Amino acid sequence: MAAMTNMSQMTLNDGATTPVGHIFSPASNGNDGVARWQDREHNGGIALGFSTFTFSVREPLKVGGPSKVRCVLTVPKLDTTTVVPTLIGWNGVTVEFSFAGVSTRQDRLDVRSMLLNAISAGGLGDNIVDLQRPY
C-alpha cells in the first residue's frame, strides 16, 4: 500500500516560454472531503484572484463499486485597471477519474498516464490551447 501524501506546497509551472512556477499552499486539509491549495502570490495577492486546486476521493457507495477521484484547477482572470479589481472570468479544468472496484493500481496508473499523454503537446494539447477540433 502506498503512503498517503501529506499536504504540502505544490509548484505548478505555467506554459510561458520561460515557465513561471506558481506555488500552491495548503488552504484546507480536506476535513470536508476536499483538499484545497491556493496560489496567493499572483494577481497581486488579491483574494478574489487566488488560483485554486482541489482534490477529492469518493469511496465506493457499495462494495465493489467504483471510486471517484476529482481534480479541479481554477485560475481567475481579474481586471486590475480599476481602483477595485474585478473578476472578469476564469480559466480552469475539471478531471474526474472513475475506477472500477476491481481495478488494480496498475490499471489506475495506466488510465492516468494515457490521459496525460492525450493532453500533452504531442497529443491534443495544442488543440486545447488553440481551441481547435481534431480533423
Short description:
The protein is globular.
Question: What's the layout of helices and strands?
Answer:
Blueprint: E1 10-13, E2 21-29, E3 34-39, E4 51-58, E5 67-79, E6 86-99, H1 105-118, H2 125-130
Antiparallel strand pairs: 1-2, 2-3, 3-4, 4-5, 5-6
What's the CATH H-level superfamily name of the largest domain? MS2 Viral Coat Protein
The side-by-side strand order for the widest beta sheet comes to 1-2-3-4-5-6
Tally the helices: 2
Low-pLDDT ranges: none
Under CATH, the topology of the largest domain is which? Answer: MS2 Viral Coat Protein
> What is the share of helical residues?
10-25%
Based on secondary structure, the structural category is: mainly beta
CA distance, first residue to last residue: 43 Å
The count of β-strands is: 6
Shape call: globular
| CATH class category name of the largest domain | Alpha Beta
User: What characterizes the major β-sheet?
Assistant: 6 strands, antiparallel
Give the DSSP E fraction (strand runs of 2 or more residues). Answer: 35-45%
Q: What is the level-2 CATH architecture name of the largest domain?
A: 2-Layer Sandwich
Cα Rg: 18 Å
Q: Helix and strand succession?
A: EEEEEEHH
How many individual domains? 2
Polypeptide structure, described:
The chain is mainly beta. The protein has 2 domains: 10-102, MS2 Viral Coat Protein (2-Layer Sandwich); 104-135, no CATH class. It is built from 2 helices and 6 strands, in the order E-E-E-E-E-E-H-H. It has helices spanning 105-118, 125-130, and strands at residues 10-13, 21-29, 34-39, 51-58, 67-79, 86-99. The protein has a 6-stranded antiparallel sheet, with helices on one face. The mean pLDDT is 90.
